[in-house]
C-alpha cells in the first residue's frame, strides 16, 4: 500500500482524498536504514522505487503504522510496513486512485504481512464490477469456494507472478487453431489484476482477432478513440451491454485440467470513448511469448488466489451479490475484509518480489541457515578473478540482498570455463534467513532470473541448495565452551613456554665483543 505524505507539493502527486501526514500520527514509525533495504542520502531511512509495465513509477520512503481495513471489516487494525509516496509518474499520476495496494508475493505485500501475523489465511479474492457497474469487492482471507468455481493450478516456483495453466481458447464453440503450448510461455499464463487489458502472443492474437471478426462481420469497423493506436473497433451493437452476448460470440478459456471459464463480451471488449454504441477489442498482441490476462478478462468474476493450495479459482458472478454467494472461513482469521471500491482499475506492480512456495518446501519450522548455488561461466576475459568482486555486487542486486551476504565459496576452471559456487548468508546480526527472503531468492534462482551484462560472457545457473539453520544442543554448547576453553589454555601455555625458552637461550648465548679477531678457520678465500 502506498500513501502520499503531506510534505510534498501537488506537482509530484495527484490525489483525491486527504494526504497521509506522518507527523500527525502518534503510532507512525519510519523504517530505519538497514542492510535489507535501500537507504536515503542521509542513510537514515529505507526508501523504495517501483516501475511498472506501462512505464509509470512510484517512489518514496518506507514507514510503519496501524493500517485499518474499513467499516465493513471485522479485521482489527494491524501494524504494517507501507510505502509513503512522494513522487509518481505516468498513469499513476493520472489515475483516479490515490495509491497502490500490493497483493503480490513479497515480504512487503500486505498479504504476506497479514499472513505472517496469523490474522488471515493465505488467500485473497477480487471481484471487479462489469462494464457498466462501478465498484467491486476484495476479500482478505479464505472463503469457502462455491461448488461451481473452477480452478487452475498456479505454480509459484515457475514464475514470480500469479500464473494459471491455460491450454486453449474456444470462440463461438470452435477451438483456435494454434500449436500446443501457445499459452504456455516462460511464465505460463499470467493473471495480473493491475493490467487493464489482455495480451496474447502474436499468432494467438491473430487467431483470436480473426475469429471475432468472422463472427461479427456484419458490424461496421470504425477507427479507435486514440489515433496513435490501431484499435479494432465496431459500431452498431447498441449501448445496452446486456444485449452484447446476442451479437458477439461466446469465448471459453480451457485449462489443462479440462475445466472451462466462460467469457462474455464484456470480458474482451471495452467501450469506445468517442462513439456511442461502439466497442473495441481489449485483446492485444504481445511481443513476448507470455500470455497476460488483465482486469478486463475477470469483469464480474470472483477470482480467488488460493496461495496455500497453489491454485486460482474463477466464478462468473454479479460482484454486487458477493456477500450472499460466498461464505467466509477463518483459517485462522474468522472474518475477512470486504471493501467496496469505486474504481475498477487496480494497479498492481508488474514486477513483484516472489515469496510464495508450497508449504512442504520451506515449512514454518524450517529456518534457512544459508543458500548455495553454482554458476557456470564461459568468458574470454583472461583475468577472471579481477571481475569477481563486481560479479558479487551484481548478484546481490539481482537477488535483492546486501552485498555482505554474498560470499564466494569455490572456483574451478578448465580453460575459459569456470564453475563458481556462491553462498548467501543471513544479514547481521541474524543467524538465519527468513522464509520470505529465502523463498524470494530460491524463486529467482529457480527461474534463472539473474541477468548479467554481456561482458561476463555466457553463464548458466546450475543448481541451488538451501541448508537448514544449524542449532546446537545443550551438550554441544557445553562441549563447544569446553573446547574453546581448552584451546585457549593450550595457546597460553605454549606461548609461556616459548617465551621462557627464548629467554633461556639468550642467557646462554656468548657474544664476541665488537672488533675481536676472527679465527682463521672461519676465513675462506674468494673464488676467482
UniProtKB/TrEMBL annotation:
InterPro entries: Aspartic_peptidase_A1 (IPR001461), Pepsin-like_plant (IPR034161), PEPTIDASE_A1 (IPR033121), Peptidase_aspartic_dom_sf (IPR021109), TAXi_C (IPR032799), TAXi_N (IPR032861). The keyword Transmembrane helix applies. It comes from the Eukaryota. Keywords: Aspartyl protease, Glycoprotein, Hydrolase, Membrane, Protease, Transmembrane, Transmembrane helix. Residues 1-315 form the Peptidase A1 domain. The chain crosses the membrane at residues 479-502. The keyword Endoplasmic reticulum does not apply. Belongs to the peptidase A1 family. PANTHER family: ASPARTYL PROTEASES, EUKARYOTIC ASPARTYL PROTEASE FAMILY PROTEIN. This is Aspartic proteinase 36 isoform X2. The lineage of its organism: Eukaryota, Viridiplantae, Streptophyta, Embryophyta, Tracheophyta.
